[in-house]
Amino acid sequence: MARRPGQALVVLASVPMLLTLLSLLSCPSPCMAVGGTGAAQAAGPEVQELVDGLREEALKRAQAAGWNGTFDRWEAKLVKTQVVAGTNYFVKVAVSDTDALHLRIYKPLPHTRLPPTLNGVKLGQDHQSPLEYFEPSDRELELPRVVDLLLRSAALRLLLRVHKMCYTDGRAWQTHM
User: For a FRET experiment, which of 12, 129, 154, 157 has its CA 20 to 30 Å from that of 64?
Assistant: First the structure.
């Protein structure tokens, strides 16, 4: 079968889109579906590093919400993840021998090169409180996810435009290549 002139361009333009789709469909946990949260698991070093970078911001938010204390401890205990356009982490952090708080952290996809953001702090928790999904406490903090979605939709529009230029009415566009 002979290859048409525009055919190679469409295949090459489709590779980045396929890679993006594969990264969205990859799950950190084999039992977790895209968009749902997995079961709570013990937090590892990667999660501890993630929460360490957000300690000061979490303290500021807790104090702004009326909590008057400091964090005697800062130890990630449990984590649930949710795959979106990036990953939401729901983390139980021990802040004393009896108290904990829950953090909602959004980590964008690596290609965005954006840092993780703290999207919510749930106060009044203890070590026995169940770690559950909760809504972001501040909608403007979802801006990195919105930008990521807009960038991907622009890439999709460009891919469709290239495809349309190459295959108009089922025939290869022969003026280029």
Answer: 129
HSE, side-chain direction, 13 A CA sphere, residue 130:
4
Alpha carbon distance 164, 158 (integer Å): 10
Q: Are 81 and 87 in contact (CB under 8 A)?
A: yes
Residue whose structure tokens are 């525009």: 6
3-state secondary structure of 159: helix
Tell me: the pLDDT tens digits for 56-115? 999 999 999 888 888 999 999 999 999 998 999 999 999 999 999 999 999 999 999 999
* d(C-alpha 23, C-alpha 25), whole Å: 5
CA-to-CA distance for 168 and 177, rounded, in angstroms? 15
CA dihedral 62, 67, 73, 74 (to 10 degrees): -10
Per-position DSSP letters for 114-138, written without gaps between them: PPPEEEEEEEEEETTSPP-----S-
